[in-house]
Amino acid sequence: MQDELKFQYWEEFNQLMKRRLEELEELKRLGINPYPYEYPVNAYSDEILRNFRDEDPPMSVSIAGRIMSIRRMGKATFSHIQDSKGKIQIYFKKDVLGEKYDILKLLDIGDIIGVRGEVFRTRTGEVTVKVDDYQILAKSIRPLPVVKEKIDEHGNRIVYDPFTDKEMRYRQRYVDLIVNPEVKQVFIKRAKIISTIREILDSHGYIEVETPILQPVYGGATARPFVTHHNALDMDLYLRIADELYLKRLIVGGFDGVYEIGKDFRNEGMDRMHNPEFTMLELYVAYKDYNWMMEFTESLIYNVCLRVNGTSRIKFGDNEIDLTPPWRRVPMFELLKQYTGENLEGKSEDELRAIARRLNVDVSSKIGVGKIIDEIFSELVQPNLIQPTFVIDYPIEMSPLAKRHRSKPHLVERFEVIISGMEVCNAFSELNDPIDQRYRFEEQARLRAQGDEEAMTIDEDFIRALEYGMPPTAGLGIGIDRLVMILTNQKTIRDVILFPHMRPEK
Q: Which sites bind Mg(2+) 1 (predicted)?
């Protein structure tokens, strides 16, 4: 039944495209340019609806938008057009438009038009623009998706709507934005989140900078990179996996506070929380530590949420999240003990593998102590952390760029912020001892030789920068896409990225 309905849909679709192409040619034959160069717009749907008053003098407007409905009734036609702000009804009359009224038969849902006229209220109470003149601005030759229904032999209503398919919506975001205008609000809010972050960071005197995306040595995180080739230099380069090492070079150079909001790239799997191209904020502030950064982070996210949503209590899925500071702070090993019943602190690699087997956590034979602990934490602890939580004090094996804990040298001064089971932030008291940093890089190189493709490489120039001296520094990374997910109540990262990566179309 579904295959039959699908075939019928495409037959109708092809006929509609053929008819629209014929209409396009007829418009040209009549001397009408269906794709003109400009149109004078002086009003938008939302402000017309908001400002119209029956007792006010007549309001003349010039608006433009996409036709979303047409109701032809002989010598009168009603339509709704959608602009960037919303929808409004427009009203065509033959005795006003004359011969130009007859050209309306060549217009379809999806066409973009400009109209001029006075605003009035219909007998049914709807604010409407009475059209004195109109112009075709773009003829749509591909029909917008609309719901198709059929009743089967058992009387069941079957709906075939090609644009409820998530994959099609992500591939054809331009259509998604047209037929699901509420989607646009997510991305308007995303832009406001980013601009608010910038405003707050700038108000603290931190300098926004740009660092290389193409890097000869990738680093700053444990991830597999994308590789490309520079023809003129005849050398391989890597798309950055993090901004960290270049930003810390600037702290060495004398900046007290720098940040970057930009794209990072990791050649890894895709799921509801991962896209190979994603947006990160990284911030580094000299003479601060991770304790200071915890207070700064909760204040930053709280204030962004307050300015964007008007409240610090938000809905995410089935949970209500309260972002009001202070947030809970819990050591990582304490959480591991709470949710697994196992004490993982100080255990050897073999002991950790045995614990993972008991807990039914599958771990690769190619990874070391840090990754084993991370796998157990991600699978058995992280999903339970719903309210904003600072997970603090990580094992040194998990954090090759973080400073050793001042009272527990087998740990580092690091925190992650977990909200609704998602890692949103990662931060350190930054490692500024060049000898310790070289040792950590060499340990990462050993793990790479063991088969861990995500282990870091040795960056000799970064070590050289540290040898000149880097002041005590606090660093922070925030996954912008995940933060937007939480602040807009979107369950997958693809719903907050305009053009997420997809497999090739068949």
A: 416, 423
What is the pTM for the complete model shown? Answer: 0.91
Say yes or no: domain 182-327+387-495 is CATH 3.40.50.300. Answer: no
Tell me the residue type at 86.
Answer: G
Average pLDDT value for residue range 184-207: 98
The DSSP secondary structure of 396-430, one letter per residue, reads GGG-TTBPBPSS-TTEEEEEEEEETTEEEEEEEEB
Contact criterion met (CB below 8 Å) for 82 and 66: yes
Q: What are phi and psi of 343, to 5 degrees?
A: -95, 105
Q: Is the CB of residue 313 less than 8 Å from the CB of residue 486?
A: no
Pick the CATH number of 35-138 from 3.40.50.970, 3.10.560.10, 2.40.50.140, 3.40.50.11260: 2.40.50.140
Contact 361, 379 (CB under 8 A): yes
Tokens of 436: 């310790």
Rounded to an integer, the average pLDDT of 23-44 is 97
Q: What is the pLDDT of residue 102?
A: 95
pLDDT higher than threshold 90 for residue 389: yes
| Band of pLDDT at residue 239, cut at 50, 70 and 90 | very high
Annotated binding site: 416, 423
Tokens describing residue 430: 């930054």
Which residues line the annotated binding site for Mg(2+)?
416, 423
Q: What is the enclosing helix (H) or strand (E) of 90? A: strand 86-93
Parallel, antiparallel or unpaired: strands 235-239 and 319-322: unpaired
Q: Both tokens of residue 336?
A: 């591991």
CB count in 10 Å sphere of residue 158: 12
For CATH 2.40.50.140, list the domain ranges present in the chain: 35-138
pLDDT for position 165: 77
Nearest residue to 106 via CA among 199, 30, 202: 30
Reduced to 3 states (helix: H, G, I; strand: E, B; else coil), residue 316 is strand
What the block records as the tokens of 438 is: 């070289």
Q: Is the pLDDT of residue 213 over 60?
A: yes
Long-range contacts formed by 278-281: CB under 8 A, 24+ apart: 278/479, 278/480, 278/481, 278/493, 278/497, 279/194, 279/479, 279/480, 279/481, 280/242, 280/243, 280/477, 280/478, 280/479, 280/480, 281/197, 281/476, 281/477, 281/478, 281/480
Give the type of residue at 276. Answer: P
Rounded CA separation 383/391 (Å): 13
Q: How confident is the model at residue 151 (pLDDT cuts 50, 70, 90)?
A: low
